[in-house]
Amino acid sequence: MTSTLTPVRKRSALTKGQLPKAAPYIVLALALVVGAAILALVGFNAFGWGLVSAVLFAAGLVGWSAAVEGARKAKDKLATCLVVGAFLVALLPLISVIWTVLVKGLPGLLDPGFLNTSMNGVTGAFDNKSAEEGAPVVGGIYHALLGTVQITLLATVISVPVGLLTSIYLVEYGEGKALARAITFFVDVMTGIPSIVAGLFAAAFFFAVVGPGTKTGAVAAVALSVLMIPVVVRSSEEMLKIVPNELREAAYALGVRKWRTILRVVIPTAISGIASGVTLAIARVIGETAPILVTAGFATSINNNVFGGWMASLPTFIYTQILNPTSPSNPGPSDQRAWGAALVLIILVMLLNLAARLVARIFAPKAGR
Amino acid sequence: MTSTSLTKSQGAGRAGDKVFSGATLAAGCLILAVLFGVALFLVIQSLPAFTAPAEDIQGGEGFLAYIWPIVVGTLIAAVIALVIATPVAIGVALFISHYAPRGLASGLGYVVDLLAAIPSVVYGAWGAAFLAKEIAPAYDWLAKNMGWLPIFQGPASATGKTILTAGIVLAVMVLPIITSLSREIFLQTPKLHEEAALALGATRWEMIRMAVLPFGRPGIVSAVMLGLGRALGETMAVALVLSSGALTASLIQSGNQTIAAEIALNFPEASGLKVSTLIAAGLVLFVITLGVNMIARWIITRHKEFSGAN
Fold it and tell me: Looking at residue B45, what is its pLDDT?
């Protein structure tokens, strides 16, 4: 901590017992050099260099501070090092995941026909050929992409009305009622339902109602709705809560009915937040694998009917291509398709996240209207 | 306007009010019904597994003997995830709330949220294809140098597909949950408390220890509990990363299994009693996570007035 006095060239009594301003940079440079030297002895790699240098930096800075500034300042420096270190550690997997998916996924994505062919008729023989003789990798994700879009759309169509109406009940009608408190509590609990349990519920429900072994896209959509509804309720509830009461009271004062007030005044005011919340909810469920795995089965061909027959989706496509490669002896082409699909899935999720931000901005109520 | 038309229009409006409030009430009740239905249908479909003779259940020793090892495996994986994720998450939350420059803080928060946006199957694929391979030498080292500890008993798995790797992947997945909740709570620390501590001459760390952490403790506890709920139920990371097997104490050998992964790996090809057994396993998982989440929510509501968490 430097003093706010006018800077003095000579170290004054006030700044005595403090590290110079450049101390962290000096220690960092030393740590990098010594770290490189140590790594050169045991065999150099970038990750080890970063790790050793970070430890040396923390030890050096804290040690120097303890010698010059005393234990309290040294402890403060140590805490700062640990907190910044935690942040850098958290960034590592993010960078690593995105890098891995990009490197492994680009060849698959750039494959001609990857986005517009299905896996119908693609057998291990084709994969063996492309692995052994260098023939192009055939097959693509069209059927999975189509399945993901259909299942997610149906889940959205189920979840949004239920979720939105529930949040309206909680904010506009249920204030202080025991039922509203119970709903809030159980919506919170529902957010914590493991995705695979949601899938099992949908499966168990349709097994009991339609017949054992019922696996269709619609079952998967119901499973996803169980996961999606609480997210929609929570975000819409927050948005409806921040609509100013003056707007409602102004409408009531003009003699407008409560339901028309809600439909014409409250919801239009909050629509930007609600829409972005719904988009984020879609982004959350579009990547769910486990519930689709137990409800929609696998398919290798295009299925346009959500209510009949097994259906593929992007996440389950990735999962099956990795765990059960099309050609067990040559998993390379399957791997390439799986990572290509993973890249497509990540791009989809990121686009949805971006869309949520844009939607919030576009639908925001215009000021001064 | 005559009085009759006035009452008529009023009647129409009143009907609209009734219909609309009824619809919202119905939607709210539907949610309760769904949660109740989840429990009900899981129980109905899993009943055969509880009543079936012991030798018909997979393993031949009844449902309890079947479920016990995978419950323990689930707990092991979740505990590993929390032990790794909690300190890092609190550090990241503190960094964003109290250390990072003001202008950067919200952007950095978004970066951490990106971690939550990546689908679980991608994490699983990453763990299996990248992390397991990179971390296998470290397991070798652990087995050689710390093999006297039962949890690091060798020989280490050569592929790195162990419960510890799965736990690390789970840690990455629960990190953003714990971080974003803790960050919210840290940001709600009363400014006056912080400034009072600083004015008394506290360093930044002393201020955090005296003002921020005591204030945020219930929030941190519930954030960790919610992370636990997520780690218990996470499927793909374990299903793709772990090469499963019987329950073992060693974290660096292949072996162990979690409930969620067991269901995901076996359900698609299951039929008959096996389906019931797996649904019963799902019911057990549901009950465990429900308990954990309810305790977490209870802690949050109990401290709502002054923690600001939700």
Answer: 84
Round to whole Å and give the CA distance between B260 and A68. 54
Determine, for residues A82 and B175 on separate chains, whether the beta-carbon distance falls below 8 Å. Answer: no
The residue ranking higher by pLDDT, B272 or A31, is A31
- Among the partner residues A166, A174, A197, nearest to B233 by beta-carbon distance: A197
Nearest residue to B235 via CA among B156, B124, B157, B155? B124
Which residues on chain A are in Cβ contact (under 8 Å) with B264?
196, 289-290, 293-294
Contact check, Cβ <8 Å, B236/A290 = yes
Q: Which among B20, B29, B242 is the top mutation candidate for probing chain A, defined by the most A β-carbons within 10 Å of its own β-carbon?
A: B20
The pLDDT, as a whole number, for residue A82 is 92
Contacts of A104 in chain B (CB under 8 A): 129
What is the distance in angstroms between the Cα of B303 and the nearest Cα belonging to chain A? 15
Contact yes or no for A197 and B289 at CB 8 A: yes
| Cα distance from N-terminal residue to C-terminal residue, chain A | 49
Is the CB of A83 less than 8 angstroms away from the CB of B91?
A: yes
Which amino acid, one-letter code, is at B211?
A
- Tell which residue, B60, B26, B88, B130, has the closest CA to residue B273: B60
Burial class (CB in 10 A: 0-12, 13-18, 19+), B37: middle
What's the pLDDT band for A229 if we cut at 50, 70, 90? very high
pLDDT at B206: 93
Question: pLDDT tens across A310-329, in order?
Answer: 888 899 999 988 888 887 77
Report whether A312 contacts A298 (CB < 8 A).
Answer: yes
CA distance B238 to B248: 16
Task: Give the residue from B47, B19, B34 showing the smallest Cα distance to B283.
Answer: B47
Domain extents for chain A? 23-109, 142-363
**Do residue B203 and residue A87 have CB atoms under 8 angstroms apart?**
no
In this prediction, residue B168 carries a pLDDT of 93
Taking domain A142-363, whether its CATH number is 3.20.20.330 is answered by no
Torsion of CA A258, A259, A263, A266, to 10 degrees: 30
Task: Pick the range with the lowest mean pLDDT from A223-237, B19-33, B141-155, B230-244.
Answer: B141-155
**Best residue of B42, B43, B122 to probe chain A, by most A CBs closer than 10 Å:** B122
Q: Would you state the pLDDT for residue A5?
A: 57
Task: Quote the tokens at residue B198.
Answer: 């600083």
In chain B, which residues have their Cβ closer than 8 Å to the Cβ of A339? Answer: 125
Residues of B in contact with A169 (CB under 8 A): 21, 24-25, 27-28
Sign of CA dihedral B198, B199, B202, B207: negative
Tokens standing for B134? 């990179």
Reported as a single tens digit per residue, the pLDDT across A13-30 is 666 777 788 888 888 888
Nearest CB to A73; choose among B13, B122, B203:
B203
Calculate helix-pair angle for A71-110, B163-187, nearest 10 degrees: 120
The verdict on a CB contact (< 8 Å) between B13 and A257 is yes
Question: What percent of chain A is predicted at pLDDT more than 70?
Answer: 94
Burial of residue B40, with CB atoms counted within 10 A of its CB: 0-12 exposed, 13-18 middle, 19 or more buried? middle
User: A176: which 2 tokens?
Assistant: 């202080």
Could you tell me the pTM of the whole model?
A: 0.86
**Which residues of chain B lie closer than 8 angstroms to A296, CB-CB?**
none
Determine, for residues A90 and B278 on separate chains, whether the beta-carbon distance falls below 8 Å.
Answer: no
Residue type at A293 in one-letter notation:
L
Q: How far apart are CA B240 and CA B237, in angstroms?
A: 6
Residue B250 in 3-state DSSP?
coil
pLDDT digits (tens, 9 = 90+) for B139-160: 888 888 887 887 777 777 778 8
